[in-house]
Amino acid sequence: MALRFGLFGTGHWAAETHAAALAAHPGAHLVGIWGRDPAKVRALAERYDVSPYRDVDALLADVDAVAVALPPDVQAEIAVRAADAGRHLLLDKPLALSVQAADHVVTAVERRRVASVVFFTSRFNPGMVDFLARPAAGTWHGARGTLFAAISEPGNPYGASPWRRRYGGLWDIGPHVLSILLPVLGPVTQVAAMDGPAGGVHLLLRHRGGAASTLSLALDGPPAAKTFDVVLFGEPGIVPVPHRDVTVVQAYQAAIDALVGQVESGTPGHPCDVRFAHEVVRVLAAADTARTAHRTTVVGD
Which helix (H) or strand (E) holds 210? Predict the structure, then answer.
């Protein structure tokens, strides 16, 4: 029997990725949609021929799992309510906008023993899955990553996103590269950070075991500078990290597969669950502190 999902969110990402993937997935049944704008809820529900909901708890009562495409602070609140109701979680990155809020999500998931997957897009691309599963021929010494987006470019569907405008590339783009580096180089123990032009931020990370990585992130950079370039270096040589090799809808369907598989097996746990997403939030929060205080901070301070 297909897992019954409730979709929380009505924006471009919710409509074109979450809803599209859920509607086409044989293991999922999209039951209904909740959002903060009733008109958008009705329109999206009509598009996918599902029920619009005005009440969060009413939708939770009718489903087995939730898919959340909302700003991270709103997502964290919905995730706790859903987990407390015994519903499985398919969430987006970043998990939350503070370590405390991320703590609450993890606590609720562990208390109710529900399954969870957080959609770090790159981690659900087949090429990336293969890359991370392949044993390295030696020790990695570090990595460098340059991820520049151009959110103000005409036609960008996220250009008016308030939370992205406020929190910038660190919180919107940073999770993508951290989701790749943490499994390879290990947890981050120290962060130094400083601001750059066009709202950019530049990080120096120390990983447990001694590896170091540098990241340059910009959300609102010039269109001509858009890039996704992540390279690992060390004894195996200089190795570019693979980028997207499927559509975001296909990647999201792989995330649905991961959640459905946990539920069917009865064994919650995934490399991109809320615990891993919590570690990403800890690094982002430490980087934010380092950036604003102009000092190096220990992750978890």
Answer: none
